[in-house]
Design brief:
mainly beta, about 500 residues, 2 helices
Length: about 500
């Protein structure tokens, strides 16, 4: 089945909104560089692999779900990665990556990694998803992806690679986890973190859904046990990505930890943040909270999860017609101040209402206690915000980016969306004036993510966006935005003197 798109408004209406929404001149302290379109035409559009029983065509020339990383040993070097040619029912034909050697002024495409069949990988992997990139202290670059077959919750693997600087290409990927999908076992939502305090160390984490003992007790007993769990998995390298440890769960309990992401503190402590979507018997809302686990020995042992705050879900939607948006809502982003050790976590939360707002929680005692959550996105009543990212500069400046729909006009046929940035110089006690970063763009032009042909999950540009400190107070924002019939990746360097 050919994927469908919702109609966009006429070009004149979009241009009118563009000028109407442009921010007035102000004394805002960020100086935004050129908005650079990083991505270009896809080389994978003729690939015959990846079709499913429900969908025969992917979204050609469409890049979604970007991440970016900055080399601490040479901040002029940065790498970004995205899904390439998104499939409506999950995954993409491939993962693309780009590199800059001039601080983001220009970007070039890196050679493809053989993640999927379309990129020269194993034929069993019709698709791949969830790209993530990171550097360690020494400047070793890491790239992780999740190869899958062409079916929902079927074959899934976790694969990692590192950059070979002698050829400026990625090494052959190593599969560190693979499951066939039998008995409900699947892998999802990967991330990778290079250690800023230990050269050669990096940490991979993801969720592995399964019944106890991987459902090998008895099929009927497993299905009636109400003990399905999502284990936060962990693997590490200590030699710059040449070898990886056998994956182990950070915690093997009847809980479901989604959106795992590791950050490292100045003393080398690892913080794994995740949304715990249920605890106890069955798929219920008992114990639904944002939580963090810590490790003080580079991931060999982990604490029990400390609760940051309850999660109160709200559906993301286009205000015009309540069409769903699939984006980063309860999935967290985490950043650590490498001078003070303060830990910041952001996510989108309904806070007991039907409208998501980006919220922030903060810990100053190593993740044991948390303040918040406090709404940190502006936009006023009736405005939903999401697709948040946070980072802390070398001087302790906290930068936050997010999307919202404050400029949407009901009934005009355009799902108007903008990207915003704000920052704080006092540990988020106060914030400098918010700035308009990008947009408006029409969210209706985004790919639609489906469970099945008659069951859309929503407009999809990614569950994550990229934001990283370059050096000093300079920051790179790396995000997707729609075009007439798809999406491109943009990079904007933000300078603060």
């Amino acid at each position: 089945m050919q994927a469908t798109r919702r109609p966009t408004a006429v070009a004149a209406a979009v241009l009118l909104m563009l000028f109407a929404a442009a921010p007035a001149a102000s004394a805002a302290p960020f100086s935004a560089g050129t908005d650079i379109v990083v991505s270009g035409p896809s080389a994978l559009t003729s690939c015959p692999y990846g079709a499913s029983a429900d969908f025969a065509a992917a979204y050609d020339d469409t890049e979604v779900e970007p991440q970016v990383a900055v080399n601490p040993a040479n901040p002029d070097e940065m790498i970004g990665a995205t899904q390439q040619d998104r499939w409506p029912d999950g995954g993409a034909r491939g993962l693309s990556s780009w590199i800059t050697h001039d601080g983001g002024a220009s970007w070039g495409k890196l050679p493809d990694v053989p993640w999927s069949a379309c990129q020269g990988g194993p034929a069993r992997f019709g698709r791949v998803t969830d790209p993530w990139v990171s550097y360690d202290k020494a400047g070793n670059a890491y790239f992780i992806g999740q190869p899958i077959d062409s079916g929902a919750l079927g074959l899934s693997a976790i694969s990692v690679t590192s950059l070979d600087r002698s050829t400026w290409s990625w090494r052959p990927p190593q599969i560190i986890q693979e499951d066939t999908g039998d008995r409900g076992v699947f892998n999802d939502k990967v991330s990778i973190t290079g250690d800023p305090t230990r050269a050669g160390y990096a940490y991979a984490t993801w969720i592995r859904g399964s019944y106890p003992n991987d459902g090998k007790q008895h099929p009927i007993a497993d299905l009636h046990s109400f003990a399905y769990r999502g284990k936060p998995m962990f693997s590490r390298t200590t030699d710059g990505g040449l070898t990886w440890s056998t994956p182990v769960p950070m915690r093997d309990s009847n809980s479901y930890f989604q959106g795992n992401q590791i950050a490292v503190g100045p003393d080398g402590t690892l913080y794994n943040v995740a949304a715990n979507l249920f605890t106890g018997a069955g798929l219920n809302d008992k114990g639904v909270y944002m939580g963090v686990m810590t490790s003080r020995d580079a991931g060999l042992h982990w604490s029990a999860p400390a609760q940051i705050a309850p999660i109160r879900f709200a559906q993301l939607f286009v205000p015009d017609n309540n069409f769903p948006i699939r984006a980063e809502d309860y999935l967290p982003d985490i950043a650590v101040d490498m001078t003070s050790g303060a830990v910041y976590v952001v996510w989108a939360d309904g806070l007991g209402t039907a409208l998501n707002k980006v919220v922030l929680a903060k810990s100053t005692d190593g993740g044991r206690h948390w303040s918040g959550p406090t709404v940190v996105a502006t936009g006023g009543p009736g405005v939903q915000s999401y697709n948040h990212a946070i980072d802390v500069s070398d001087t302790g400046m906290v930068t936050l980016t997010y999307w919202d729909d404050r400029n949407n006009v009901l009934g005009d046929g355009v799902a108007t969306t903008d990207v915003w940035v704000r920052h704080s110089h006092d540990g988020t006690a106060t914030w400098e004036p918010e700035q308009h970063l990008h947009g408006p763009f029409d969210h209706y032009a985004a790919p639609i993510s489906y469970f099945a042909p008659d069951d859309p999950r929503g407009l999809f540009l990614g569950d994550y966006m990229g934001l990283e400190t370059i050096s000093g107070n300079d920051t790179i924002a790396f995000f997707t935005s729609t075009i007439a019939d798809g999406a491109d990746v943009h990079a904007i360097r933000l300078n603060h003197n």
